Amino acid sequence: MGLKIKYFLFMPFLVLFTTQQNIKYACFDGTKDAILPSPALKKVTAQGALSCALECSQTDGCRSWNYFKTRNIENCELNTLKAINTDILVRHEGGMYYEDAKEEMDCNNLDGSGIFHINIKGFGTKEVYCDSGWLVVMRRYDNTMNFNRNWAEYKHGFGDPRLQFWMGNEALHALTNQGNYSMLVDMLSCNGNYYYVKWNEFRIQNETMKYAVDALSLESYNTTSVFKLDEIFGRPFGTTDNMKTTSYLNISKTCAEQHGGGWWFARCTYNHPTGYYPDCNNPGVVSERKSKMKFAAITGYNCDFGCLLQAATVKLRPNN
């Protein structure tokens, strides 16, 4: 964090017992000589660190707090976010940063970007990559990671969440069914431009239902069209070893075999970030481009060079 602290757990657990103010307990992890540079939910004058902890435990939405002195004033800043790691804290001599020890169900209350362990309802603990409140489900940016995987690999996930990966459909199902989630797809086209599409509702069913998409609602986008942005609604997930729908380009092959990767195939797909990775310097003819990593909504039905993708990230975030 630019701050070299030898001791990160200055006060590992601060436990407060008080029945007079209707508080059973509050548990915080702390870091000395550091604060979180986040806009404060509330700023109050404290009478010591314990007083600040009590204030946080009594304030709705407080997830962390900074305690520090300026001259003779004891300051208490209550925050709505927690630091994803100590790297984003800033050095403050004599200051103390504390965060509640509650397990997170997603990345929504975390400040910063990096690896974090969350506890998904109905699934359990999962190592994920958080990006400023968004939980990254998929990241892809070159052809060194093979996305043409079988059902089991897409079910459990593959790759490194720090690099290129797929989160796993079991975890994705549990995540999208523990609350209402938005989905964001960020893309870098072969033409060098950045695009995005955001849906304010996204949910999938369980494995028995082939992880079919049963909730999808478009919110915003900067693509040139909305062509097929709803095509995955109601569609089951498919891989080369677990689907029967044939490709309109080649009826001897399934959609997954023709287009590569696992996805919610219709017949077959126009928007496909897990498809065969394209060569942006040699995109090929139209029929070849249609079976690559692409997002046709960028350019429309014809899917010219600009619809091919050299990078894409899929993210989820709960709707507050």
TrEMBL record:
<dbReference type="GO" id="GO:0005615">
    <property type="term" value="C:extracellular space"/>
</dbReference>
<dbReference type="InterPro" id="IPR014716">
    <property type="entry name" value="Fibrinogen_a/b/g_C_1"/>
</dbReference>
<protein>
    <submittedName>
        <fullName>Fibrinogen-like protein A</fullName>
    </submittedName>
</protein>
<feature type="domain" description="Fibrinogen C-terminal">
    <location>
        <begin position="98"/>
        <end position="277"/>
    </location>
</feature>
<dbReference type="InterPro" id="IPR002181">
    <property type="entry name" value="Fibrinogen_a/b/g_C_dom"/>
</dbReference>
<dbReference type="Pfam" id="PF00147">
    <property type="entry name" value="Fibrinogen_C"/>
</dbReference>
<dbReference type="InterPro" id="IPR036056">
    <property type="entry name" value="Fibrinogen-like_C"/>
</dbReference>
<dbReference type="InterPro" id="IPR050373">
    <property type="entry name" value="Fibrinogen_C-term_domain"/>
</dbReference>
<feature type="signal peptide">
    <location>
        <begin position="1"/>
        <end position="20"/>
    </location>
</feature>
<keyword id="KW-0732">Signal</keyword>
<dbReference type="Pfam" id="PF00024">
    <property type="entry name" value="PAN_1"/>
</dbReference>
<feature type="domain" description="Apple">
    <location>
        <begin position="27"/>
        <end position="102"/>
    </location>
</feature>
<dbReference type="InterPro" id="IPR003609">
    <property type="entry name" value="Pan_app"/>
</dbReference>
